[in-house]
Amino acid sequence: MKAVAVIIFVFFLFRLFCIFLRFHRRPIPYYLAALALLRHRRRIDHMMNRDYFNDGRHETMQKGVEAAVMETFPVLRYADVRKLMEKKVVRETGACAICLCEFEAGRSLLRLLPKCDHVFHVGCIDRWLAFHVTCPVCRAELTADSGDGDKFER
Predict the structure, then answer these.
(1) Which CATH architecture has domain 67-152?
(2) In the chain, what is the greatest distance between 2 CA atoms, to the nearest angstrom?
(3) What is this structure's pTM?
(4) Cβ distance 63 to 131 under 8 Å?
(5) Helix, coil or strand: residue 68
(6) Structural domain spans, the chain
(7) DSSP character for 135?
(8) 150 phi and psi angles, rounded to 5 deg
(9) Count of alpha carbons within 13 angstroms of residue 29, beta-carbon side
(10) Which regions of the chain are under pLDDT 50?
(11) How far apart, in whole angstroms, are the C-alpha atoms of residue 136 and residue 93?
(12) Per-residue confidence (pLDDT) for residue 90, from 0 to 100
């Protein structure tokens, strides 16, 4: 009988401890969230600098967009992109979908993908397009004829 009482008492204490933990959770500290974001960026950089899918067995696998085609995509300052967003020419965005950093008004140079109207940091999208032929957001295929010059008249 004494053993049953001890087991019930231990179970009761364990249950109280679980309830205590449930109601006294702390949010994740800022520095842990920052470390997770840093690991995510490093993983993306690592993936961008290495072609994981072409290990020598698939010689016919297509590489990314050619540099000449990439240079035809317009490079704009963030202030110009904001003006295009107001005119509904460019899809609204405030951050690069590749590195997850917000665009800065005075310092960000952005490359616009004319086919789908998404914008990214120039360095981020150039590394992406070196290995892929699609937009990282909507997967629209970017080819030599995807430029659309009449869209950007001011």
Answers:
(1) 2-Layer Sandwich (3.30)
(2) 88
(3) 0.54
(4) yes
(5) helix
(6) 2-48, 67-152
(7) -
(8) -70, -10
(9) 3
(10) 51-54, 57-60, 146, 149-154
(11) 14
(12) 72
